[in-house]
Amino acid sequence: MTLDGNARRTAILVYLQRQTGPVSGTELAKQFGVSRKVIVKDIALLRADNRNILSTNKGYVLYHPQEKHSGYTAVITVNHTPEQALEEMLSIVEYGGSMLDVFIDHDLYGQIRANLVINEADDANEFCQKLSQSNTVPLKEFTEGCHYHTISAPSERTLDLIRKELQEKGILVED
Q1: pTM of the model
Q2: Which uninterrupted H or E stretch holds 148?
Q3: How far is CA 73 from the centre of its chain?
């Protein structure tokens, strides 16, 4: 039996709540017997209804800021070579931090942001592998390498340690 749109969107929310990681649009389409295009529209409608659904490079995830990213957050300015991307991410997660997003200030479009949700080394490795196999360019290519990340950590001290490590590696840009 196929669910109508409202019932399907409710079921998508319940399904995402039960997951421990991101779920691809293709997986959701199979789960609910619809096309991926229908899932994309459903997600857009859920977001318009103020549901915190993030699109990551690995799929959709229901975002609960109070659960996953409690503690402290900071926006850091970085500039690095493509080879340093993994090093940057690992420097953050090895201290127990998370890289929540990446964004740039574009001259024409203003701020362009993408959710990343890099919480552990496996996330960082998978992202960098996809990046190396992709024909697309990272956002930093539009701003001569300069870009920003929102990072979270369990304490202010941890944020300071992450900043210090990134500075020592020549990745952090001093504001």
Answers
A1: 0.65
A2: strand 147-153
A3: 14
**Residue 105: helix, strand or coil by DSSP?**
strand
Cα gap 105→97, rounded to integer Å: 24
Q: What would the pLDDT profile of 74-123 be if each residue is shown by its tens digit?
A: 999 999 888 899 999 999 999 999 999 899 888 888 888 888 889 999 99
CA distances from 110 to 105, 143, 172 (A): 5, 12, 22
C-alpha distances (whole Å) from 47 to each of 89, 101, 103 are 28, 18, 20
Helix axes 25-32, 36-48, angle to 10 degrees: 100
**What contacts 24+ positions apart, CB below 8 Å, involve 160-166?**
161/95, 162/76, 162/91, 162/92, 162/95, 162/97, 163/74, 163/76, 165/91, 165/95, 166/76, 166/78, 166/88, 166/91, 166/92
Q: How many residues does the chain have?
A: 175
In the block, residue with structure tokens 């840009």: 173
What one-character DSSP code corresponds to residue 164?
Answer: H
CA 120, CA 27: separation in Å to the nearest integer? 23
DSSP annotation of 16: H
